[in-house]
Design a protein that fits this description.
The protein folds into 2 domains: about 45-215, Tetracycline Repressor, domain 2 (Orthogonal Bundle); about 215-344, Four Helix Bundle (Hemerythrin (Met), subunit A), CATH 1.20.120. It is mainly alpha-helical. The protein is built from 14 helices and no strands. Keywords: Chlorophyll biosynthesis, Membrane, Transferase, Transmembrane, Transmembrane helix.
C-alpha cells in the first residue's frame, strides 16, 4: 500500500485570504491613482508621467458641470437643431468651457494654493514636488491662450459682429484669476468666493452656449446668476475637505466662519431654496410641466442631504456630490429647455 501525502488543511484558506487581501490592495491602489488623475480627494502620490501630472492639475472631474452648462445654454436659446455643424460647434464650445478654461482655472488655483495644499492635500502635484512652479505657469498661460483662440474661432463660426464668446472668456478668466490670486483672492471670503465659483460653473458656460446659438439677453443673464446662488451651495461642499488648512491660513470659508454643521445647513438650504425659486419662475411663465419636473428632481437631493451630507459633511462630501449632483444638473437642463420653449 503506497504512502499517501498528508493534506495541509490550513494552506488553502490562508492562500485565499492572502489573495483576497492582495486583490483589495491592488483595487485600492487603482482607485487612488484614478482619484489622483481626476483631481479628487483621497488621491495617492507617486505619479511620474508628466502628462498625467499636468492632467491632474486640470482636475478633469470639474469639467463636467461646465460642459453640461453649454448644453443648457444651447437648450435655452431655443435655436439648437441636431445638425452636424451644430454638434461640432457645441463640441468646440464644450472644449473651451471644460478642458481649456476650467483647466486654466484649476491650474492657476493650484499654483496660488500650493501652501494650503501642502497642509490639506500634500499629494497634489505642486506640494508633492511632482512638477515645478515654472512648468505650472507655462501650463496655465498656454491653456488660457488656447481658450481665447477657440473662443474667437467660435465667434467667427457663429457670425457674431462682436466677439461675444471671446468677451465671456476674457471675463471668466479674469474672475478665475482674482478668485485665486492675491491681492483680491476672492476665495478668502466664503460668500464672495463661493458665489464666484458657483456663477462660473452655472452662468458662464450657459451664457456661452446660449450666445453660440441665439442672442444672449438680460433675462437669461439675470436668471442664471440667480440660479448660481444654488451653485454657491454646491461650491461650499468643496470647502469641507480643507477646513484645517483654511483655519491655519486665515481663509474665511463658511465652515471656518460658522462651524461645520451650521455651514452644512447653509449649504443645503442654498441648494434647495434657489432651485425651488427657479421652479416658481417657470410656473410664472406658464411652463408648469417643466416646473413640476424640476421640483421632482429636488426631492432626491434633499434625501441625499439627509442621508449623507448633514450627518457628516467632512466624511461624506464626495459621496453626497456623486449621489445628489446628477439631479441638480438635470434640473439645469430642464430649466434650459423650459426657457427655450418659452422663448425667453
Amino acid at each position: 500500500m503506497s504512502e499517501s501525502t498528508p493534506i495541509n488543511q490550513n494552506s488553502q484558506p490562508t492562500e485565499v485570504v492572502e489573495t483576497t487581501i492582495q486583490e483589495a490592495t491592488n483595487k485600492e491602489d487603482r482607485n487612488a491613482k484614478t482619484r489622483q488623475l481626476l483631481g479628487m480627494k483621497g488621491a495617492a502620490p507617486g505619479e511620474t508621467s508628466i502628462w498625467k501630472i499636468r492632467l491632474q492639475l486640470m482636475k478633469p472631474i470639474t469639467w463636467i458641470p461646465l460642459i453640461w452648462g453649454v448644453v443648457c445654454g444651447a437648450a435655452s436659446s431655443g435655436n439648437y437643431t441636431w445638425t452636424l455643424e451644430n454638434v461640432l460647434k457645441a463640441a468646440l464650445c464644450m472644449l473651451l468651457s471644460g478642458p481649456l478654461l476650467t483647466g486654466y482655472t484649476q491650474t492657476i488655483n493650484d499654483y496660488y494654493d500650493r501652501e494650503i495644499d501642502a497642509i490639506n492635500e500634500p499629494y497634489r502635484p505642486i506640494p508633492s514636488g511632482a512638477i515645478s512652479e515654472k512648468q505650472v505657469v507655462t501650463q496655465f498661460v498656454l491653456l488660457l491662450l488656447l481658450g481665447y483662440g477657440v473662443a474667437y474661432t467660435l465667434d467667427l463660426w457663429a457670425g457674431h459682429p462682436f466677439p461675444n464668446i471671446l468677451g465671456l472668456s476674457v471675463f471668466g478668466s479674469f474672475i478665475a484669476y482674482i478668485y485665486s490670486a492675491p491681492p483680491l483672492k476672492l476665495k478668502q471670503n466664503g460668500w464672495l468666493g463661493n458665489y464666484a465659483l458657483g456663477a462660473s460653473y452655472i452662468a458662464l458656460p450657459w451664457w456661452a452656449g446660449h450666445a453660440l446659438f441665439g442672442e444672449l439677453n438680460w433675462k437669461i443673464v439675470v436668471l442664471t446668476l440667480f440660479y448660481s446662488l444654488a451653485g454657491l451651495g454646491i461650491a461650499v461642499v468643496n470647502d469641507f475637505k480643507s477646513v484645517e488648512g483654511d483655519r491655519q491660513l486665515g481663509l474665511k470659508s463658511l465652515p471656518v466662519m460658522f462651524g461645520v454643521q451650521t455651514a452644512a445647513l447653509i449649504c443645503v438650504v442654498m441648494i434647495d431654496l434657489f432651485q425651488g425659486l427657479v421652479a416658481g419662475y417657470l410656473v410664472s411663465i406658464h411652463e408648469n410641466l417643466y416646473a413640476a419636473i424640476l421640483v421632482l428632481l429636488i426631492i432626491p437631493q434633499i434625501t441625499f442631504q439627509d442621508m449623507y451630507f448633514l450627518r457628516d459633511p467632512i466624511a461624506n462630501d464626495v459621496k453626497y456630490q456623486a449621489s445628489a449632483q446628477p439631479f441638480l444638473v438635470f434640473g439645469m437642463l430642464v430649466t434650459g429647455l423650459a426657457l427655450g420653449h418659452a422663448g425667453i
